[in-house]
Amino acid sequence: MRMYDIILKKRKGLELSKEEIEFFVNGFTKGEVPDYQASALLMAIFFNKMNKRETADLTMAMVNSGDKIDLSSINGVKVDKHSTGGVGDKTSICLTPLVASLGVPVAKMSGRGLGHTGGTIDKLEAFNGFSVELSEETFINNSNTIGIALTGQTGNIAPADKKIYALRDVTATVDNMSLIASSIMSKKIASGADAIVLDVKVGDGAFMKTPEDAKALAREMVDIGSSVGRKTIGVISDMDQPLGYAIGNSLEVKEAIELLKGNGPKDLLELTLTLGSYMLVCGKTARNFEEGKALLLKNINNGKGLEKLKEFVKAQGGDASLIDDTDKFPKAKYVVEVKAAQSGVISKINAEAFGLIAMELGAGRETKESIIDLSVGIVLNKKRGEVVKEGDILAYIHSNDESNIEKAKNDIIKNMIISNSLDKEIPLIYDIVE
Ligand code: URA
Predict the structure, then answer these.
(1) How far is ligand 1, taken at its centre, from the CA of residue 408, in Å?
(2) What residue's CA is closest to ligand 1, atom 3?
(3) Is this prediction's pTM over 0.70?
(4) Are 183 and 177 in contact (CB under 8 A)?
């Protein structure tokens, strides 16, 4: 078999066999297929696409490229949750302890942020001392004793995806449905959960820009999960504005804590209840969605979700006292108001732009090596659909560098569109794919 023939076949729009896909994945992982041939094949896949069978074979080839985590010594149905990436998306921080507080074990692998999207691990590191470097024994032990454990992507989980993703990132081949579906599902399958609830984002801050594409991506991932015996559910949710009000690591953690104290923003609460209910149904703790929602609300109101977050943070070396005293989180030196230049209705908040503004303030990474500033970011004061008068506060900039405030201010004003009316209502939850 030769890479040249595989590239040519896909360039002509033909279907690749399982053996050809495995030849590429194994050869590239071992360093036998050079980057230029892998890039050419990825571009051919980007333009000519893969069918469902090819996508499933690509997924399993990437799963088999490395280790598979065995979670069988954790009691109960292990449920994982994964978001395709968004701005202000702190859902995992409030959702996972909430679900664990109801007896469904959450043994989760999370990532760091890159570009305009944030990552759960970076956010949790706002708790002084918090670590995701857990031995396998501690990971299993914490999952069994407190019902929740979180690690980073360990060295050898789906190494093929790690290499392929890095190449896609620099060859403009990220936003292809088969490549995204296989990338996410290979990591989820290799990390061992019995059931997976996917939050598939749609909108300008997401990889999928239209509900139709997001639904097709969700369908693809649900089918892959089901084909290997993992119950998989896709929730299609809005990323046409940031989720909640806070963007930036400490700021987002504080908002997630507020949710568990019963003061969460409406959209973050609705998304948490939706994803959480499906996790409880998968974990067989709730018989249906409505029952799941009621259980989650109960554990917000009685404080059990918040207590579980404290146990979780403490078990992973973090300072859980910050949960009771959120003033102790890292704080930015400057907090600056951004005011509306005109009256009207907020008709659009460009999510991707807000992710980039937060990144430029230091909240995100431009490259994998960048060091992030946990204290900085943006807190919105208004969301889409709200009426504002000229001079009203639209948002607060949290910065440690006086010189970047003016640009952030201008960018916020440019990307928070004020119109005479709202042209369409956008739902938070578009659809559920099972
Ligand atoms: N997240 C992933 O892990 N992979 C993708 O391709 C896109 C988002």
Answers:
(1) 28
(2) 184
(3) yes
(4) no
Q: What angle, rounded to 10 degrees, do the helices at 211-227 and 52-63 form?
A: 60
Task: Using alpha carbons, list the distances in angstroms from residue 242 to 206, 361, 380.
Answer: 10, 16, 9
How far, in Å, CA of 300 to CA of 290, rounded? 16
φ, ψ for residue 195 (rounded to 5)? Answer: -140, 150
Q: Which amino acid is at 218?
A: A
Residues with CB under 6 A from ligand 1: 84-85, 165, 174, 179-180, 183-184
Ligand 1: residue whose CA is nearest its atom 6: 180
Tell me the C-alpha distance between 325 and 307, whole Å: 14
- Residue whose CA lies nearest to ligand 1 atom number 7: 180
Which of 257, 254, 250 has the alpha carbon at shortest distance from 372? 250
Q: How far apart are CA 150 and CA 125, in angstroms?
A: 12
342 DSSP 8-state letter: S
d(CA 193, CA 79): 6
Question: What is the set of active-site residues?
Answer: 82, 161, 168, 183, 187
Q: For 179-246, what is the HEC assignment?
A: HHHHHHHHHHHHCCCCEEEEEEEECCCCCECCHHHHHHHHHHHHHHHHHCCCEEEEEEEECCCCCCCE
Distance 183 CA to ligand 1 centre (A): 6
Contacts of 378 by beta carbon, 8 Å cutoff, 6+ apart? 246, 247, 248, 251, 354, 357, 358, 361, 395, 396, 397, 398, 408, 412
Q: Is it the case that residue 242 has pLDDT exceeding 90?
A: yes
> Residue ranges of the alpha helices (H) in 16-135?
18-29, 35-48, 52-63, 91-100, 120-124
d(CA 307, CA 432): 30
At 65-94, the pLDDT tens digits run 999 988 899 988 999 999 988 899 999 999
Atom of ligand 1 nearest to the CA of 111: 3
**Burial of 77 from C-beta contacts in 10 A (0-12 / 13-18 / 19+):** middle
What is the share, in percent, of the chain residues with pLDDT greater than 90?
82
